[in-house]
Design goal:
By secondary structure, the chain is mainly α. It has four domains: about 325 residues, no CATH class; about 70 residues, Serine Threonine Protein Phosphatase 5, Tetratricopeptide repeat (Alpha Horseshoe), CATH 1.25.40; about 50 residues, Alpha Horseshoe (Serine Threonine Protein Phosphatase 5, Tetratricopeptide repeat), CATH 1.25.40; about 55 residues, no CATH class.
């Protein structure tokens, strides 16, 4: 009796946890408390959908067969793919706070040739952006996301057909694939991972065909190599290629030793050829890797690590990721008795080897910007593990349990996608987890900076200032945060706030000329001209070849009533390459303060020769000429 109702209890508790956490969030389980951030209507729809899972399904729905090989079958698959695309576009993510979205957009927009863990992805996206297609940086990423989603849906039908000959089994496999939380990647998500997941599904399908003797080894080996150059994490699928080859051999689909060795050796050749073709220096990349990518086992975590490998908080973050992006394997293990028993099919062994190695890697890796932000790369094991769960349900013919699990995962995924499709809800979740999540100092400060940039770009300047100021407090050794906070304070006409922030910053980084220069500007804005001169002098003393810093010192001296010294500073600015209209104009003001009217007229003329439309110089020149003409 217990075994019969076990799926109902497990799925029911999973759904009830969502509803319970809609009243009070529990950031330690950020993979479940999604309803807390969603608009109130989501909880109502979620509750109604949960009840509907236990109602009988219409006979027409259960009898539908989009795998038919006639025109109706093709039409049904096309309709589902079109509906999926419409869903991705209409429910696209409204912010790019998660992952490195804003960093990706900024680097692509500035045509930064960056080398990372995804060399082929960066190369392809750069080519698309540079092509004359009329697409901006965000449009390039969103288009890649939508296209990968459509490919994923199309492949899902093929994979489901490969895993079961029965219509019910195919629906279960399709349901697992189309109810995963990582479908968020296809909703216009700005990152390099959407094509990786579609490509991984293609590889997993190829592995099944290889074991059945329907695909040559060299094709799958070459395809995996291509995927590895797209993103190096695909190397974690390497052991599964050996497993598929061994299982296919055991089934009688082996090849000669020459083809075996040649097929496996093709992978490294393809990797090296592609990396060479896109211009990646593999040796320089390997030798340039910095430490901190793995969590420490016994050592004390540093500023880029939130916890150690054996820390309970690490376990909770891993559990939250799996519940967020791929709850089906967790529910299957809990709901299906004997899911771990021996006697697995070859397909289950293959998917387990692919998912297990990827899961081990993500468990060892350090989520440097926080697990809730790095959810996209940590989601990688969920795809093969989801197919493992589908195999369990199909092999046990657990149709009812499969329907409940797929339905529950679909409700969960809809809420997750819905939160990110709502800018206010997504931002609220991001801000709360920055406060209460398990984050390293680096991750928290970086996240606050990302949030501040988002607030600034959306016109929420007060919130931007608060976020930048908090980032500077969390990581005072990173001068970028102090500069951002101070500039925001100056933009809000709060010079004393900028002075306070920069004073704290220069106390940590006393030799940084840029901090002293901006501090001098903040003093000047506050009317403290003597302090402004002192700060600017300290800036040029540390970096005396910067024209702008000499110009700023000249301005401070002019404001403090020292026009002769100001002229000297302006002369240094010109020496080091300063040739902008403001420099000539302020030089004219200094000459005019000293009574050198001819020199002032020449300087105003220089300003207008640099910028003929520079209004201050036009006005001042006209006034001075009128004064000279009028005489004493």
């Amino acid at each position: 009796m217990w075994d019969k109702w076990r799926p109902d209890l497990v799925v029911g508790l999973f759904l009830l946890a969502h509803l319970a956490l809609s009243w009070q969030s529990f950031p330690a389980l950020w993979g479940l408390d999604l309803l807390y951030y969603a608009p109130w209507g989501y909880a109502l729809v979620f509750a109604l959908g949960a009840v509907a899972l236990w109602l009988p399904w219409p006979a027409a729905l259960t009898a539908a067969d989009p795998w038919r090989r006639d025109g109706w079958g093709r039409l049904a698959r096309l309709a589902l793919a079109t509906a999926g695309l419409a869903f991705f576009v209409l429910w696209h993510t409204r912010t790019h706070l998660l992952g490195d979205g804003y960093l990706m957009l900024r680097e692509l927009g500035m045509l930064v040739d960056r080398t990372g863990n995804e060399p082929l992805a960066l190369w392809v996206l750069a080519k698309l952006y540079r092509a004359e297609l009329g697409l901006g940086a965000e449009a390039v990423y969103r288009t890649a996301s939508y296209a990968a989603g459509v490919c994923y849906i199309g492949l899902s039908f093929a994979v489901a057909a490969a895993l079961s000959a029965e219509r019910k089994g195919r629906w279960i496999a399709l349901g697992i694939l189309l109810s995963a939380g990582y479908l968020q990647l296809f909703c216009g998500y700005v990152e390099n991972y959407p094509p990786l997941f579609a490509g991984t599904l293609l590889y997993l399908w190829g592995g099944v065909l290889l074991m059945r003797g329907q695909l040559p080894l060299w094709v799958l080996s070459g395809g995996l190599a291509l995927l590895m150059t797209y993103h190096f994490i695909a190397a974690m699928l390497g052991p599964s290629l050996l497993v598929a080859t061994r299982l296919g051999w055991r089934r009688g689909h082996g090849v000669g030793w020459g083809r075996l060795v040649g097929g496996l050796a093709l992978g490294p050749v393809v990797v090296l050829a592609i990396l060479y073709g896109i211009g990646l220096d593999l040796f320089a990349y390997a030798t340039g890797l910095r430490g901190g990518h793995l969590l420490p086992v016994w050592a004390v975590p540093d500023t880029t690590q939130a916890y150690g490998l054996l820390d309970l908080r690490h376990g909770l973050d891993l559990l939250s990721v799996q519940l967020l992006v791929g709850a089906a394997p967790v529910l299957v293990v809990l709901a299906c008795k004997g899911a771990w028993r021996r006697g697995w099919s070859d397909e289950r062994l293959f998917f387990a080897s692919a998912g297990g190695c990827a899961l081990l890697f993500t468990a060892l890796a350090n989520p440097e910007i926080g697990a809730f932000r790095d959810w996209d790369i940590l989601a990688f094991p969920a795809l093969p593990l989801g197919l493992w769960a589908a195999c369990v349900l199909v092999e046990r013919q657990a149709w009812r349990a499969g329907r409940l699990i797929c339905g529950a995962c679909a409700l969960h995924a809809l809420v997750w996608v819905g939160i990110n499709a709502d800018a206010e809800a997504g931002t609220a979740r991001f801000a709360r987890l920055l406060d209460e999540g398990y984050l390293s100092r680096h991750a928290r400060a970086h996240g606050l900076e990302t949030l501040g940039v988002y607030y600034r770009e959306t016109g929420q300047r007060e919130q931007a200032l608060a976020s930048f100021a908090r980032a500077a407090e969390v990581d005072p050794h990173n001068r970028r945060y102090g500069l951002l906070a101070a500039r925001e304070a100056l933009a809000l006409q709060r010079p004393e706030t900028a002075v306070r922030i920069l004073t704290a910053a220069v106390a940590v980084a006393e030799e940084d000329p840029q901090l002293w220069d901006l501090l001098g500007t903040a003093y000047a804005a506050a009317g403290r001209y003597g302090d402004s001169v002192a700060a600017h002098r300290r800036a040029v003393a540390r970096q005396g070849r910067d024209a702008v810093q000499w110009y700023n010192l000249g301005n401070a001296l002019l404001l403090s009533g020292q026009p002769a010294e100001a002229l000297s500073a302006y002369g240094e600015a010109a020496t080091w390459g300063g040739s902008f209209a403001e420099l000539s104009y302020n030089t004219g003001l200094a000459h005019e303060a000293l009574g050198a009217w001819a020199a002032a007229i020449k300087s105003y003329g220089d300003a207008l020769r640099t910028d003929a439309a520079y209004a201050p110089a036009q006005s001042r020149l006209a006034q001075l000429q009128s004064r000279i003409k009028a005489g004493p």
